[in-house]
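Run: sequence + magnesium ion -> complex structure.
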Amino acid sequence: MKIVEVGPRDGLQNEKQALSTAVKLELIRRLTASGLRSIEAGAFVSPKWVPQMAGSAEVLAGLDLTGPVAYPVLVPNEQGLDAALAAGAREIAVFGAASESFSQRNINASIAESLQRFAPVAARAQAAGVPVRGYVSCVVGCPYEGRIAPAKVAEVAARLLDLGCYEISLGDTIGVGTPASVLAMLEAVSKTVPMTQLAGHFHDTYGMAISNIHACLRAGMMTFDSSVAGLGGCPYAQGASGNVATEDVVYLLHGEGHSTGVDLAALVDTAWFIADALGKPPASKLAHAIGDQRRAKPER
Ligand code: HMG
Ligand code: MG
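>> structure
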């Protein structure tokens, strides 16, 4: 099973409080030490749109980009690609949407325009030996348009695959999906994109993320995105809460008999580390169930 940790990007992009590069690097160091092997480290987007990601080049400069751990970064256009490559990025992700309104609000482009923009980004990245991941946002619902047709998600996912994306991450950006709606969407998408190249990216606004992951797992999906401490949200999707917490996903996967290579206790300590840095408790139940006991120990 593969977990793509998105906390340092999806998690921190939506925090009002901007964290220093040193704290971001310590977060990523701890996530790496817990055994995670793909950790989204930043985004080369406009700092006017998402100021929290402005220091992404500095973050990459502090990481070992040549080792076994992948540190992908988001790239919306060729300008972002230039900056990401200059910073030494070894993996990038382009991010599109299945909703026209969300696409406009998030990246100031229609779906068709965004795919046109991604084409040279993907081609140039691949020519440089940099693998490209693709996101589709609003795969179940959109904050502006409501329900999204599974056929639209399948169409955008197939286009991203055609551009050369090695994996397509299906984002329930506002967390409105339930197992039934998610599986209906997955059935449509998996007709054109093999299940082995699909990932689930669930936000937990309605508390459905773990149920949705369980349903996708049973349907054969093997890659899930998540965020330590359940951090996150999308600045262009008002009311969307954080990603499903990585510690909850790891607990589910281990309970289902899968291995992840992640040390749950170290991950929970990391959840508390970042929660303390942000001055708010972790969103996951697990961080409290396990973490409270671990934190209480020194005082006993
Ligand atoms: P735009 O305003 O249309 O861009 O924004 P533009 O090309 O017209 O350029 C305008 C200005 O932006 C110029 O600067 C450019 O230099 C600058 P100025 O001359 O005004 O000083 N600019 C850039 N600066 C830095 N890096 C760049 C870049 N490109 C242009 N790459 C743009 C278009 C795409 C740039 C903007 O809309 C943007 O940055 N959007 C990013 C929004 C974002 O990051 N959203 C969150 C991530 S998506 C997400 O969270 C969902 C996901 O988790 C999955 C899920 O949950 O569904 C992935
Ligand atoms: Mg997201």
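>> summary
The longest strand covers residues 92-97. Residues 111-127 form the longest helix (17 residues).
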